[in-house]
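Input structure tokens:
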């Protein structure tokens, strides 16, 4: 494979934003943890996203798509290949009850636009710090609702460079998962939302945010819920029952406020987080015979 510098120069020729080499991904994840990406780009236009994917395809580079980095653990050894962060792709179009949002639109901004236009049904997403692209792929949500409930269609870019519209009936949504990843990379998302009273929506959002602030360790760097809830159980309750609140490995700690959160107390490494995850899984399995499954994504190399 060509050197990173050569690849970066070649990629840069067709792009308006800087191509970075050996870029620490800790700068871009909400956990503030993670080793370097060989190549890191932040496309400003859909055409640039397409070009980056085509370039990676031609060069045989693995591709990783990052939204807000809010549900992600990058190992300390970093990521080989090309990491594309989509946050600059952030146009929103409102047409009556239909919303079209580029993949990089952050959910808090989308929720604000939706509410301003007298639309509801997305209040459950208050406080989720994800992009719409990442959120729809993992069917993000809460017990009050999830993205799969409001999605009308998703436009994807296949690895062959073809744009494809998936209608709601073409997509299988399940708990914290969807079939979208197998189809390609999310370019934009179409939502269909009901008209509602904006005042009611704002009150609901305020309540949800207040609840999040009182029950989650918002002031510490974290990646949200670490584990999926097993059938008929809450992961946080199981973790609490094995006495894991406050467990620490290095600077990573199981939150005292919510046991399904691991916080970075300052200089945590991915290896600290992974060791803590393993410790929690073992303890819960030993006591309850339940294997906790990760809700977060893990990328890269290292322990």
């Amino acid at each position: 494979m060509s050197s990173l510098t050569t690849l970066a120069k070649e990629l840069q020729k067709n792009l308006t934003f800087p191509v970075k080499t050996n870029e620490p991904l800790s700068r871009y994840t909400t956990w503030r943890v993670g080793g370097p990406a060989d190549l890191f780009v932040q496309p400003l236009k859909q055409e640039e996203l397409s070009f980056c994917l085509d370039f990676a395809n031609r060069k045989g580079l693995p591709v990783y798509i990052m939204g807000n980095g809010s549900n992600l653990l990058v190992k300390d050894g970093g990521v080989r290949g090309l990491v594309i962060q989509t946050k600059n792709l952030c146009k929103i179009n409102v047409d009556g009850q239909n919303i079209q949002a580029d993949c990089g639109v952050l959910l808090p901004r989308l929720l604000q636009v939706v509410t301003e236009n007298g639309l509801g049904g997305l209040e459950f997403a208050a406080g989720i710090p994800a992009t719409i692209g990442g959120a729809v792929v993992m069917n993000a949500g809460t017990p009050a609702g999830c993205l799969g409930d409001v999605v009308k269609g998703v436009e994807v870019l296949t690895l062959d460079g073809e744009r494809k519209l998936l209608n709601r009936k073409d997509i299988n949504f399940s708990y914290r998962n969807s079939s979208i990843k197998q189809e390609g990379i999310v370019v934009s998302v179409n939502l269909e939302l009901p008209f509602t009273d904006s005042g009611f929506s704002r009150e609901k959002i305020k309540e949800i945010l207040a609840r999040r602030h009182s029950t989650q360790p918002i002031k510490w760097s974290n990646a949200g819920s670490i584990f999926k809830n097993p059938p008929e159980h809450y992961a946080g309750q199981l973790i609490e029952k094995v006495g894991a609140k406050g467990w620490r490995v290095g600077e990573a700690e199981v939150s005292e406020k919510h046991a399904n959160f691991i916080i970075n107390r300052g200089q945590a490494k991915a290896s600290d987080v992974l060791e803590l995850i393993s410790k929690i899984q073992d303890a819960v399995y030993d006591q309850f015979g339940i294997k906790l499954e990760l809700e977060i994504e893990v990328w890269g190399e290292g322990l």
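The longest strand covers residues 185-192. The chain has three domains: 4-85, 92-214, 217-299.
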